[in-house]
Design a protein that fits this description.
10% helix; disordered N terminus; mainly beta; eleven-stranded antiparallel β-sheet; outer membrane lipoprotein receptor (LolB), chain A
C-alpha cells in the first residue's frame, strides 16, 4: 500500500445532528487539548481492499511514529519539523509537510474549532460513539478527516480520510495507552533500524 503516507490526513459548527450538541463538541476539544501522548496498536483498512497493521506513537506537539508490521515495508516518523515516509523495500525516503496531512490536527498542542483554521462539517453521537468531521479551510487542497471516539471511557478510537484517488483510509486503534512518557528516540529517524530484519523476512 504505497498510499499509506496519506494515512494521516483536518474542524466550527456546520450541520450538527440532533443526537449531538455543543457540549459534545466541547468534550472533543477538551479531550484533544489534554491529550499529551498516546501509544497503541493499529489496523489500517482501505476501501479498495488493502490492509496493514502496526504500532503508533504520538507525543504532542507534532511528534508521531507509525511502525508497520511485515510484510508492509513502511515507517513514518514525524519529528516536529517534517514527516518522513520511508519505504524500506525501495529504500526510498520522502519528506512531507505537516500542513499536507489532515490527521496532524491530532498532533496540535491547542485545538480550537473556530471555523477559520478548523471547521466542523459534521458531528454525530449515538449510545456508543461520537464522530466529528473536520476540514482546514486555509489548506483547501487537503481533504477532511473524520475522528471517531468511544464514549465510555471517552477516547480516540479511529480516524478516516480520503486520499487523492478517492480511496477511504481507516485507521483503528487498539490497546491504547495515554499520557505515558515516550522516549524522544522514537521520533528520530534512522533508516538502518530494522533494515536487516526486513531483508531476512523477504528471503
Amino acid at each position: 500500500m504505497k498510499k499509506i503516507l496519506l494515512f494521516i490526513c483536518g474542524f466550527m459548527f456546520a450541520g450538527m445532528t440532533a443526537e449531538a450538541s455543543q457540549s459534545d463538541l466541547d468534550k472533543i476539544e477538551n479531550y484533544l487539548n489534554n491529550l499529551h501522548s498516546l501509544k497503541a496498536n493499529f489496523i489500517q483498512m482501505a476501501s479498495n481492499g488493502g490492509t496493514a497493521e502496526g504500532k503508533i506513537y504520538i507525543s504532542k506537539p507534532s511528534k508521531i511514529r507509525m511502525e508497520y508490521t511485515a510484510p508492509e515495508p513502511l515507517l513514518i516518523v514525524g519529528n516536529g519539523d517534517y514527516i518522513i515516509y520511508h519505504d524500506k523495500e525501495l529504500d526510498q525516503i520522502t519528506n512531507i509537510d505537516y500542513k499536507d496531512i489532515p490527521a496532524t490536527v491530532i498532533l496540535t498542542r491547542k485545538i480550537k474549532f473556530d471555523g477559520t483554521n478548523l471547521k466542523v462539517t459534521d458531528l454525530y453521537k449515538d449510545s456508543g460513539q461520537t464522530s466529528i468531521t473536520v476540514e482546514t479551510p486555509k489548506t483547501p487542497g487537503v481533504k477532511p478527516i473524520t475522528l471517531v471516539f468511544d464514549n465510555e471511557p471517552f477516547k480516540l478510537k479511529q480516524w478516516k480520510v480520503i486520499d487523492p484517488q478517492n480511496i477511504e483510509i481507516t485507521v483503528s486503534l487498539f490497546d491504547t495507552e495515554q499520557d505515558e512518557e515516550l522516549s524522544d528516540s522514537l521520533f528520530k529517524f534512522d533508516k538502518n533500524v530494522g533494515k536487516s530484519k526486513s531483508k531476512t523476512q523477504r528471503k
